[in-house]
Each structure stands twice: as structure tokens, then as C-alpha cells.
Write a structure and sequence with these properties.
By secondary structure, this protein is an alpha/beta fold. The chain is built from 9 helices and 5 strands; from the N terminus they run E-H-E-H-E-H-E-H-E-H-H-H-H-H. A 5-stranded parallel beta sheet has the order 2-1-3-4-5, sandwiched between helices.
């Protein structure tokens, strides 16, 4: 039957097997989620594909682009490491087996330079134990070949979202620390007592100051910390898992 839109359906993409590796098969993609594009979310947007077979790099770049995710391919781990394209890197899809450096070797070098973007390993059945070890070493996940386009792209988007969430959490933590740094020594003392649930009179007695002075300090603490009351203050500081002791 003729296509109502007047365009013949595009044939499914099928990549051949690769000897020691499995090929990539394509099935129809799920509809694009309205919020999927990293650029729409303000995330670092480029997924870097490190694989020594061009057909795999091109296929993955096409699949990612079809979901609004720009990608760049690298023919070797050495080329990727030499270019250091991490500033805009949202995620790395990294083949386990390559001619020069293996995927795990590239991953270890990235870790030696700091905290790398999320890394997803591509692995054949025989390499699954290697990929599992990479997970234990901090990789985001691995995909066993053959894989579907939906699986690999959805996993990449999940990794991108996780990286963005971690970045947002770090930014919020830095902002919180900056607010704490504006508190005077006395305001810190008052804040600690507020967090224990002490009332103004109890704080005044503990610190040997007037209740009116406590009220002024409490007001300044809440204003500087950007909260309206002691409950919000406690919730704000409880979310900061890098510092302890504010309540003691």
C-alpha cells in the first residue's frame, strides 16, 4: 500500500558481524521523548564514541543524532586521549577491545586525570567479566553486543542525566558553603543551637546574651542561608552530605 505521506519507508539499518565481535542490529526507534535532548536541558551535549571500527562509530553517531544528541567518533583510545575533548563531553561510549589501548586502559588513564564523564563500555560476550570489573572501578554501565538502538541511546541519555544531576548537586553544595562562609562566629554558634531545637531563651542562656540579640542573630542566619525557618534550615543542611557537625 502506498505511504500516505508519499515517502517510502527507510530500510532498517543492519550492520554485519565483526569476526571476534558481534554486530549491531537496528530496530525501530521509540518516539523521541520531549525532554531527551541534552541541549534542551543545558547539559554538556557531546557523546564521544571510541571504537576502532568506523561502521560502529558511524552507526552509534547516527542513532544518537536521531534522538537529538550530538556525537563524535574516535578511531582509537590514543587519539581520544591526545585530543582531551572533555570540556563538552557528556558521556563516553568505549569499546573494550581495540588495537592500541583497550577500553579499560583508556578508562584508567581518564581516572588518573580526575573524575571522568560517565563511561559506557561496549563488550562482546567473552569480555563481560572485563566490563564487570570496569563497573567496580567506576564505569557507568556496559552493553553487551548485539544491542538495540533504543538500549544504547537510552543508556547514554541516562548517563547524561546522571552527570547533569551530579553537577547540579555539586553547584548547590558550593552555593551552600558560600552562604555558610558569610556567617559570623556568633551566628554559627546560634545556628548550631537552632539546629538542636533550642528556643531563643535557651540559646540566650547558653551563650550568655540577651534574647533580643538572639532574635537578631537568628534572623540574620535565616536570611544569609536563604531559608524562612528552622525546619527549612535543618533540611538544607541535612542535604549537604559533605559536612557534618552542624547540629552538635
Amino acid at each position: 500500500m502506498p505511504n500516505p505521506g508519499g515517502t517510502a519507508p527507510r530500510p532498517a539499518l543492519s550492520l554485519p558481524g565483526r569476526g571476534r565481535r558481534h554486530g549491531v542490529s537496528r530496530r525501530p526507534s521509540l518516539p523521541r521523548h520531549p525532554g531527551y535532548s541534552p541541549r534542551e536541558r543545558g547539559m554538556s551535549s557531546v557523546v564521544h564514541i571510541v571504537d576502532d571500527e568506523e561502521v560502529i562509530r558511524d552507526a552509534l553517531a547516527f542513532l544518537l543524532a536521531s534522538r537529538g544528541v550530538p556525537a563524535r567518533g574516535w578511531a582509537s583510545g590514543e587519539a581520544f586521549l591526545a585530543a582531551q575533548p572533555l570540556e563538552d563531553c557528556a558521556c563516553i561510549i568505549l569499546d573494550v577491545r581495540m588495537e592500541d589501548l583497550s577500553g579499560p586502559e583508556v578508562f584508567e588513564r581518564l581516572k588518573a586525570q580526575g573524575t571522568p564523564p560517565p563511561v559506557i563500555f561496549l563488550t562482546g560476550h567473552a569480555d563481560v567479566p572485563v566490563a564487570v570489573q570496569a563497573l567496580k572501578a567506576g564505569a557507568f554501565d556496559f552493553v553487551e553486543k548485539p544491542f538495540s538502538d533504543n538500549d544504547i541511546v537510552d543508556l547514554a541519555l541516562k548517563a547524561i542525566a546522571a552527570r547533569a544531576a551530579a553537577a547540579a548537586k555539586d553547584a548547590a553544595r558550593r552555593d551552600l558553603w558560600a552562604r555558610q562562609a558569610t556567617l559570623s562566629a556568633r551566628e554559627v554558634e546560634v545556628m548550631r543551637l537552632i539546629l538542636t531545637g533550642a528556643l531563643n531563651k535557651q540559646i540566650a542562656d547558653t551563650l550568655g546574651i540577651a534574647m533580643r540579640t538572639v532574635e537578631v542573630h537568628r534572623s540574620r542566619v535565616l536570611a544569609k542561608m536563604g531559608v524562612r525557618n528552622a525546619i527549612e534550615l535543618a533540611a538544607l543542611l541535612a542535604a549537604d552530605d559533605k559536612r557534618e557537625g552542624w547540629g552538635g
